[in-house]
Q: What sequence folds into this?
């Protein structure tokens, strides 16, 4: 499997500038918040979201260099993503992320919630300073979607009547909205046509959905060491994802175990066996492949370039994580 970072050669220098800028954007007026942000941005990660923004910026600005506003948009995208992770870790009570301790495990819940709020507020301020109302609207919607997705997930815990459509809607809010809207925003800063802007949005939407579905499959097919969390941890917390929803149609006894929230000894192990013994994981793979293919079709409308080719290869990379 090709690591995501090696795909990003066309924007490698851009991502180095981004890494330097992120810590400066937070500023050091609040030492603990600065320490929390420094810890987060120093933790690495693949930087997939800002890389997509930079690749789209380059793929839509072939005759000239990308602007400081394109770079700032990539930084805002990563700030929003990081803020959402800080809040997610508090909600999920996760002590590790990307192999390093989470903010709340180091600084406590209060500081973690405030650090997330601070990053959201800071990203909104920089967003307003782009002086592009359409871009402000797109990224503001993302912040609303992130909260909606988290609330929806919380309300649907252990709900065996959840439909695949509801699952995809929640996945859009939690993962795909940021990629879709920041992709479109990059195009708007490049002054692409409304039709192209819509294709960029759909590229990000389908790519984000494929990414989330693959993550949800890996929750059942990866090892605890690879995931950095227990196998089936989504299921344990009552978060029913694509493999489970497909398996439920085939294995009615799985619903009984979920509805009693794995209260009896051996319930969870039995549930995991039923999922493995069903077509749920294969059907989820097919769903991810469908969205990855749709993403590739939408980005193919751009003029040929190294950056466009990377954006297409990214759709293959998402699926390659399964093998």
A:
């Amino acid at each position: 499997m090709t690591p995501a970072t090696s795909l990003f050669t066309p924007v490698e220098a851009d991502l180095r500038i981004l890494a330097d800028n992120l810590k400066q954007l937070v500023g050091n007026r609040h030492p603990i918040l600065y320490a929390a942000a420094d810890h987060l941005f120093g933790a690495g990660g693949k930087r997939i979201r800002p890389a997509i923004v930079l690749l789209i910026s380059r793929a839509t600005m072939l005759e000239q260099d990308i602007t400081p506003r394109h770079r700032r948009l990539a930084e805002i995208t990563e700030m929003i993503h990081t803020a959402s992770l800080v809040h997610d870790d508090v909600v999920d009570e996760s002590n590790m992320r990307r192999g390093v301790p989470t903010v709340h495990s180091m600084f406590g819940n209060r500081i973690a919630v405030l650090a997330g709020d601070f990053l959201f507020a800071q990203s909104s301020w920089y967003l307003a300073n782009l002086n592009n109302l359409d871009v402000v609207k797109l990224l503001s919607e993302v912040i609303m979607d992130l909260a909606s997705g988290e609330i929806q997930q919380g309300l649907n815990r252990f709900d065996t009547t959840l439909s695949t459509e509801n699952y995809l809607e929640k996945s859009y809010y939690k993962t795909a909205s940021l990629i879709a809207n920041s992709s479109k925003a990059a195009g708007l800063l490049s002054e692409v046509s409304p039709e192209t802007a819509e294709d960029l949005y759909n590229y990000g939407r389908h790519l984000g959905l494929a990414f989330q579905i693959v993550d949800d499959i890996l929750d059942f097919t990866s090892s605890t060491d690879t995931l950095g969390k227990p196998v089936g941890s989504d299921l344990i917390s009552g978060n029913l994802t694509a493999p489970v929803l497909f398996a439920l149609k085939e294995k009615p006894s799985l619903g009984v175990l979920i509805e009693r929230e794995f209260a009896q000894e051996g319930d969870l192990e039995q549930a995991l066996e039923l999922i493995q013994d069903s077509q749920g994981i294969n059907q989820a793979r097919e769903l991810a492949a469908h969205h990855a293919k749709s993403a590739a079709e939408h980005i193919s409308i751009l003029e040929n370039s190294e950056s466009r080719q990377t954006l297409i290869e990214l759709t293959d990379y998402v699926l390659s994580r399964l093998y």
